Amino acid sequence: MIAKRIIPCLDVADGRVKKGVNFVHLTDVGDPVAIASAYQQQGADELVFLDIAATNEHRQTMATMVEKVSAQVFMPLTIGGGISSVADMQRMLRAGADKTAINSAAVADPALIQAGARKFGNQCIVVAIDTAWDATSQTYRVYTHGGRQATDLDAVDWAKHAVALGAGELLVTSMDRDGTKAGFDERLYRLISAAVPVPVIASGGAGRVADFVSVFKNTPVDGALAASVFHYGELTIGDVKQTLRQQGVVVR
After folding, report:
1. Would the pTM count as exceeding 0.90?
2. What CATH number has the domain bearing residue 138?
3. N or C: at which end does the chain have fewer Cβ atoms within 10 angstroms?
4. Catalytic residue set
């Protein structure tokens, strides 16, 4: 059985880790290299870095940060935010990233998924999907631009299309649950996981160890991502893994 992954997420702006609620009200958390090193010591399986101030002038800042982090930690790194070309992907991979995550750029130009997969392999291409429940259409609607711009895309349909184009993994964030610590949106992850044959990472809503246990027992997701509960020391990765093992969930 494949071991489930526990993945801290570091939202980065101006070289610092930030955290907010429902994608807004950002506060400074600390230095990304120091935080990444601490997560390695705790036993994190991977790290995700998202450039939430993703303008062109931040590309070099992010590449420099990735170089510093990859020199200090030895676990897979996924880098996303503002990656809009194969050249951007290559820059991050050369800096030390193992995978690149694309969201808004993939929606704007789905061919970017295919181009990246062809050049670097499917395993390097993560499509990040930010989604919220739309009561009117009774579907999960896809959002871009850091959750600020709604699209007409249904999250399940978009997930299938992204994978068909070459996405090797999906990072699916419930905007409704982001930063709320109200638990993962398990309905969302059951729908997405049933629709695609690639690993799905659940993001948004982790507040207690029980939330990790629940999402792994009640959905087929391959990993669970969290930020606030780890950043502020409310949970440690060791605590989470110990409880998961006790509950019969296979972890590294």
Report:
1. yes
2. 3.20.20.70
3. N
4. 11, 130
